[in-house]
Amino acid sequence: MNWTKWAVVGCLMGVLSFLQVGCATNRGIIDVRVVQPQNPANSQAVKIVTVRDLRVFELKPASASIPSLKNGEINDASITHRAIARKRNGYGKAMGDILLPEGQTVEGLTRDALARAFKEKGYTVLDAQDAGYDQAEAVEADIEQFWAWVTPGFWAASLEFEALVKVKNPTIFLTPEEAVRGSVLLHTQAAGTSAWMNILNKGLEDFIQKAQEKMKEPKTLSSAQ
């Protein structure tokens, strides 16, 4: 093997080592948050009554985009409801996973993303203790996909995120049931904590934007009366 071939092998090994940064075999915890703006004044009110995590996890999926966990944890709802990504080594083998912190769930994160989308669109989002809650437009959401994954490459890894949520309301959305899909693709040489945080934040931003595109313009309080 000549010098050029050795150089290529060296570069490849360097890339493989970069892809395994962050203890790929271990569980990672990432605290992802959605910052909430203030409710607008004098606007149509909504309430997010139900958010259901309907994702299907597989032990050995055919694609990295399919949610998966090791050690049979795909049957443990206390884990799956917090799971947001799966690490892989430089050869593409599934390794450790990435979860939200204890006390947080994908359902809660999706609810926060929808709440921000409504507020930025001009709607008022009410909680159960708020005045006018009973009269607010009810919104339901079913999470069919919410996952981030890595695909190794020769010079860099590809990080991807996709969320697919069915949102339901007969008057707020363009149709009574809308499929909101948010996705993003990034490239990185080190799939560490900062890279995972970046892909998740950007993916949520895209999901929020896509949700707003599915919404009708809100009514003002005076025109709604």
Please, could you describe this protein's structure?
The longest helix is centred in the C-terminal third of the chain and has 21 residues, at 193-213. The termini are far apart. The chain has one domain (3-224). The protein is of the alpha/beta class and 225 residues long. Residues 1-22 have low confidence and may be disordered. The protein contains 5 helices and 8 strands; from the N terminus they run H-E-E-H-E-E-H-E-E-E-E-H-H. Strands 1, 2, 3, 4, 5, 6, 7 and 8 form an 8-stranded mixed sheet that branches.
Major sheet size, sense and barrel closure: 8 strands, mixed
H/I helix tally: 5
Termini separation (Å)?
80 Å
Helix content: 25-40%
Radius of gyration: 20 Å
Mean pLDDT: 86
Total number of strands:
8
- Beta content comes to 25-35%
Structural class: alpha/beta
